[in-house]
Design a protein that fits this description.
Number of helices: 5
Radius of gyration: 15 Å
Strand order of the largest sheet: 2-7-6-5-4-8
Distance between the termini: 17 Å
Number of domains: 1
Helix content: 25-40%
Strand content: 15-25%
Mean pLDDT: 84
Structural class: alpha/beta
CATH topology: Udp-n-acetylmuramoylalanyl-d-glutamate--2,6- Diaminopimelate Ligase, Chain: A, domain 1
CATH class: Alpha Beta
Number of strands: 8
Order of helices and strands: EHEEEEHEEHEHH
Shape: globular
Length: 149
Amino acid sequence: MLLAYNDLANIVSKKQGVQGDFFFQTVTDMANVNQPKGLFIPINEDSGELAEAITHGAIATIWDSEKKLPSYTPNHFPVFFTNNLTDTIARLLQCYIEKLNGETNKQMEITNFNFLNKKLLNKNNETYDIAVMLNKIKELQQNNTKRRG
């Protein structure tokens, strides 16, 4: 089961751009990685530029509301604004884990969470929880692959 636009809209209320019934195949914090139907979350300067993320397949972003959104951002591009990226990521992961735990379809497609920014995962207890949740999602993905076997 893929992460849906509406899943994110239920977590983050302030948004702009198109709204709809679309799904994210990838969630990442790095602009320079391939991210088909991606949700880009720039955690810090090492994450890269939004333009590069769009070039690599990002179709939406979660953006720190204290930072200026780049002027080149298309008007229709979905942007979710938050005051706390770390908290929003944790809530997003928890929501997704709950969504997967309720799913019984053995052939389901699962969103790929690809966080490469190690600073995020070593920051504090809250980010430790994120690392634990990412491992839980990886376990669910592996179990899903075995069921398809």
